[in-house]
Each structure stands twice: as C-alpha cells, then as structure tokens.
Amino acid sequence: MVDRDASRRDVSRMDQTSSPVSHKPAPARPTLERWLTGPRFPGLPNRGPEHAAPLLSFEFFPPRTEALEAQLWACIRRLETVAPRFVSVTYGAGGSTQARTHATVARIVRETRLTPAAHLTCVGATRDEVDEVARTYWQVGVRHVVALRGDVPGGGSYVPHPGGYAYASDLVAGLRRVADFEISVAAYPDVHPAAASATADLDNLKRKLDAGATRAITNFFFDTSTYLRFLDRALAAGITASIVPGIMPVTNFVQMRKFAATNGIEVPDWLGHLFDGLEEDAETRKLVAAVVAAEQVRLLQANGVDEFHFYTLNRADLTYAIAHILGVRPVA
Ligand SMILES: Cc1cc2nc3c(=O)[nH]c(=O)nc-3n(C[C@H](O)[C@H](O)[C@H](O)COP(=O)(O)OP(=O)(O)OC[C@H]3O[C@@H](n4cnc5c(N)ncnc54)[C@H](O)[C@@H]3O)c2cc1C
User: Fold this and answer.
1) Which residue among 87, 133, 137, 149 is best mutated to probe the pocket of ligand 1, counting the most ligand atoms within 8 A of its Cβ?
2) What does the pLDDT look like over 125-149, one tens digit per residue?
3) Residue 23 lies in a domain
C-alpha cells in the first residue's frame, strides 16, 4: 500500500529544499483525469501534394566581409531552388552599406533566376538622390522596391532629411513618379514604436498603399493572434492588399529580444522559456527555432495564410526546412 502521508511529506520537503523551477511538485490531478477532463485540440490540418504550395519571399542583408559574402551566396543558391516569388535585400544608412546593397541586388539580377526586390529608405538623402538610386535600379533590371522610411543610424529620434522624403508614404509616391515599380511597404502587427496609436499606424499603412504600394510585409511577430487581429483591423480600415507575415526563425534568442525591445515587438514568456538554459547550446537552439517557426507557419496556414516572407539572416537551413514543411519543393 502507498503511504500517502509519507509521499505528501516528501513533496513538502522537496518544496523547501529545492529550486521551485526545476523540482515542482507533481500535479495535483492524476494524469488520466487531466487527459479526460482537460481541453482537447483537434490538431493542425495536414496538407498533401494536391494543395498549392504557398508563395514565399526571402530577405537577405548585404554582407560586410568576404566570408559573409560566401555565406550569403551559399544561402541564395540553396533557396533559389525553391523558386521564391522574390528575394529582397536590405538597405542601411551610409555609403558603403548602400553600395553593398546595390552590388548584391545587381549580382542577383546577373547571376540568378531570382526576382530581386531592393529595399530603399528615406534616411540621409535628398529626394533627387533617392530618385537617382531608384532609376539606377530600374536601369539594371530591378522592378520591385521595398520602400521604407528607415531609422537613424545608432538610434535616436527620426528627423526627415531637409529636401528628402519624410515618410515611407512620400517615398512610395516618389517611386511611382520614377518608374512603374512593384512596391512593398512595411507593416507592424505589434504597432510601430513611434506611432501615435495603433489606429494612426494603420492609417499610415493605408496611406502607403493608397500612394501606390502593392503589398505590405510585416515586421516579425510571435503571437499568431496578434497578426490575425491586425488583419481584421486592416480589413475594417478598408485595406484589401496582401499583408504578408514576416517570419523570423529565432536562433539567437538574446539578440532577438534586444531587437524586439527597441522595435516594440512583444516576446511572449513561453518563447523565453523555450530557449531558457540553451544559451551555450547553439545546436539545440536551432532545433527549437525550427519547431517554433514551423508551428507558427502551420498555424497561419491553417488560418488561410498562403504567403510568407522569411527573415533568413543569410542562413538557408532553417528557412529551407520550414519552406519544406509548408509544402514547398525544389523546382527543376
Ligand atoms: C519588412 C521590413 C523591411 C525593413 N527593411 C529595412 C531596411 O532595409 N533598412 C532599414 O533601415 N530599415 C528597414 N526596416 C525598418 C524600418 O525602416 C523601420 O521600422 C522604420 O522605423 C519605419 O519604417 P516605415 O517604412 O515603416 O516608416 P513609415 O511608414 O514612414 O512610418 C514610420 C512611423 O512614422 C509614423 N508616420 C508615418 N507618416 C507620418 C506622418 N505624416 N506624420 C507623423 N507620423 C507619421 C508611422 O505611424 C510610424 O510610426 C524594415 C522593416 C520592415 C517591417
């Protein structure tokens, strides 16, 4: 016979002597009771080859060194096989960063079958200078621009350049005058940190689309319901263009959390808990990252989302694996 009082005594002793995180007392209800009375989840629907694969796009950043350049190109070559609808290259402030963006975009045009989208910002340049960059892109065959306001290098509050485009909506209107670009713009399910309110931010998104943008790509987010609610609010505000979810497979949780904090992106406690204790274990972090991102995209897919933009961080493996889970296969 089980001495129930003894086991209770053991539990109370454990409570006093051990860490509350690693040695929690056993749950009060027996497992069978929890199975029978707890919530039931039907599971995510599975999609076979008869379903159309979703449309993907991938984001890269221009590399700073030769080693990083080699890494980027290995990434581009691997992801090229799944025929994304476009790949985008970010744009920084400062001449050398911008030259690297141009060089990367031009090489994508010359050497791959990919459709590049060049990011372009309003920061630190006059309208004429920005227009000239856009014209140069058009001349080398770039037909898609991701139009952004940009941020002040090193942080600080944004002040428009005198004679420059003040906000992304102004840039979109300017690009429309330069050439017949396809234009994507940024959207923020967690609300842009400088926005006066969520409604003002949504009004701004609408302004960008009304100025001539084709679609919005969201900043990354982790709570799927935040994104879905954002779609509801966008629709209620009269936005009908695609709002493509930006997916960030997180391998470096600490770094991501810092970025998220300055960008007003909510990082749920459960995500921190998943990466807890893995600070020195990159291999396991990668496996966890794949599971988290795969779960996120599958949940979005189950909710009818069939376009995804991946922040690749110039690494192909996770993005490729998650694309595969979404049903995307290499194209001959
Ligand atoms: C998909 C994606 C790609 C990105 N790529 C890059 C990149 O390559 N390079 C880079 O530097 N950054 C990039 N960013 C970051 C982006 O530049 C920053 O988030 C920036 O702070 C805002 O850019 P935006 O285009 O959304 O700006 P905007 O749409 O202009 O909005 C910026 C803020 O100003 C407010 N606002 C807009 N118009 C007005 C107005 N008339 N009066 C007052 N307030 C106004 C908006 O509500 C918002 O809070 C990217 C972001 C995303 C989501």
Assistant:
1) 149
2) 999 999 999 999 999 999 999 999 9
3) no
